[in-house]
Write a structure and sequence with these properties.
- The protein is α+β, with helices and mostly antiparallel strands and 358 residues long.
- It has eleven helices and 19 strands.
- The strands form three sheets. Strands 1, 2, 3, 4, 5, 6, 7, 8, 9, 10, 11, 12, 13 and 14 form a 14-stranded mixed beta sheet that branches. A three-stranded mixed beta sheet has the order 16-19-18. A two-stranded antiparallel sheet has the order 15-17.
- The longest helix is centred in the N-terminal third of the chain and has 24 residues.
- It is globular, with a radius of gyration of 23 Å.
- The N terminus is likely disordered.
Amino acid sequence: MSNVHQFNSKELILEKSCDWISAIDRGLTDDEKEQFKLWMMQSIAHQDAMYELAQLWDEISVLNELSNLFPHHNNKQPKNNWMFSYSIAASLFAALMVCSYLLINLENGYNQELAKVNYTKIYKTKVGEQATYVLPDGTIVQLNTNSLLEVAYSKGRRQLLLSRGEGRFNVAKDATRPFSVMAGDKSFTALGTVFNVQRNTSSDLELVVTEGKVMITDPSVAVDANDFKDYQLADNSTQKIRQINANIVTSGEKVIIEQSVTKPITQLSMNDVQRDLAWQNGMLIFNGEELSDALNEVSRYTATRFELSSAELASIKVAGVFKAGDVEGLLESLQTNFSIAHERLGEHIVTLKHHTES
């Protein structure tokens, strides 16, 4: 068989696998289930492609369906994700991005062995823009509005620098190469994990872990491959963690860093996670935040800036779900629910006041 024929075969299988995963995510009809079973039974390559792609973006609904249709498949099943319902909602867009990326790289004859040596690249998003990228090792990065990420892979280390903004990191496991994200004056080392880092300033950060563990240290602390496996078993390496003044944040936990001081780790509810990570679905969720804080968050996604007429207005508690960047929808909601009028001063300034104010 020629190399060209092998390549075309792999490409077709991958393309068909992406189509099936998309169909499974929306729900298969009875006829589609039979067609899917027949396609899977045609080749071990079909089965391997489906399971590898499904596990790449950790799509629990797809893996569950595969498990139901093929209960005796010997592929290793992923651990239960404590926030699987949220992951299902968040993963479809990432799944499509992964498929597109993989197909493009197959067409270009991409050699993943290169990723094990050196890889450097800068990724960035504009204000109001969000984007998903797949790094050469299979790590999936989703960047929020106005973000800048520098990636530097070497033979023994995967180092990323979040210069501004916010990112979600679904880290590909590699016990020989620690994966660290530096933001401000902190370093976040993944211990087999999915986590979200928001950089507000160089000394104000937020970390939310949705799977696995993340170790927080100062950037000067170098985690080498020899200790990496020990740190992954954090419960058995308490002595080392104390020596380097590290904090371990686990699945379902959040930590806020203010002025370089790491605050106590907090346990999150499902609602808390959905609110903090709603941006990954292009949404903003408010649940009792002060109007001034809510507007500051909205401003991250648009060039519009808001001016409030009084401290009383700024302290109003707001709740609701809004599309990121939808200023008109927000203003309409404030007018309908809180009788807050608005006036535009130029292209990017909006003033807000109560209808009763003169």
